[in-house]
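quick one before i forget lol
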Amino acid sequence: MSIPKEPRQIMINIMYLVLTALLALNVSAEIFNAFKMIDKGLKQANHSLDEKNKATGPVIEKRAAADKNLEKYAERVPLARQYSQELNDYIDGLVNELIDKSGNNDGVVDDKDKFESTGEWRGLRNKDITTRLLVEGGKGEELHQKILEYRDKFATLFDEEDKAVNVGKIPLNIDEESWKKSHVKRKNWADFVFNHMPLGATLPIFDKFKNDAKVAESTVLNYLLGKVGGEDVKLDKFIPLSSPKKSYVVMGEPFETEISLGASAGNTSNTGIDIRVNGTHLNADANGVAKWKTVPRSVGVKKYNVSITVTNPVTKKSETYSKTFEYEVGQRSVSVSLDSMKVFYIGVNNPVTVAASGVSSNQLQVTGSGITVTKKGNSHYNVTASRPGRASITVSGGGLQPSKYFYTVKRIPDPIPMIGKMKGGSVGNGTFKAFSGVRAVLQNFNFNARCKVKGFRVVRIAKRQDPEPMSNRGGKYTPDTRALINKAKPGDKYFFENIKAVCPGDKAGRPLSQMVFNIR
């Protein structure tokens, strides 16, 4: 491709390159989010494997203790843990070194979680450190050899006659074919996997290898468990479980529940389970779950006893676990309660709760007359009104007969005029001058509403002087009103009259009571 000679064409080509780079930046942000999500999922899977492996090891050791011929299998449990932990520690050390050298530069090699949580994405985008350390520095090929080395170590924990079948279940492996067949020539596996790979994109790869190590540990432990008496973990903590479709039913409706056995390791197909409710045997499905159904004939709290007998497939020993459960039977009814007061007010939201026992809130139909009713969620509704008078709410649905409830609609009560927190009376000269205007305060009103002062008239009466009136528009003092207020001296009187305010729902200003202040 020849380089264009015209400056204009060269500029166009450069613009295309810049646009391509910007698009690549946008895509990379989305890709990094995807890598982060995959990495989080792998961490959760690794945690689950750790918990399972911790529970399996003691079971193997306990079963092997009963027979000297099985002790050799118990001796391999710590080795499986050791190999898994060693490979995980090696990988963590490699990741921490990459993080530190990617821009963290604090010399600390154990701050991987801190690095990820702080969102230092500039370091996670670093492609140079992965290439220098993993490809050119040989750390990638060292990881390659470690994975194969620990695969062979895990293989030694199987009996010789069982290796051919079980070694293939160990996921620790290296894909040697893909990099050799790549259309881009690669010198080795590390070059194929890590060359110019952003650090953030390699984190899920490392967690995947850690996951392989934990799966390898789990594979070995399951094999050892089978050798000492079965492939299933012995269930040693049980509790009967009842999962009713509804814990509250209406008289005449059936009560139905699923009965099962809860255990720390779950139910198994070869564990004998006998489930009974109030002494009656129930057939369980393949998952160990049985259904019990009864129709109550009276209201009130009803109890039922669940007993489950478990037979251990290894020891053939049976144990019975019992527990009593209860549910409540009621009759259909409905009630409507106002969350604040017994009336609806114009211009504000009036919260209402509608409860109907025995009926789902999704089945209820709530409508209003003279008002507007809006559902806010579950049993909660909001009522708005525009004119005073009578209104009603009708509740129906879910098998209920329509029920109508009547209410009164009123205007918001008159607010109290105030200056600061004072309605009038004796006030110090300095305090009086410090106020900035007249407020209209709704006292003892349980709604989120505010009234606004439209205007007022203030009259100053000083000794041996004519009255000085001043009209004020709005609640805040105008400059002329402020000048009149600033004249206040001990012995003066100030009258605030013709006060008008507008509250939510008002079409015009409403008159308020006057205020009188004696200046001292």
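fyi The two ends are 95 Å apart (CA to CA).
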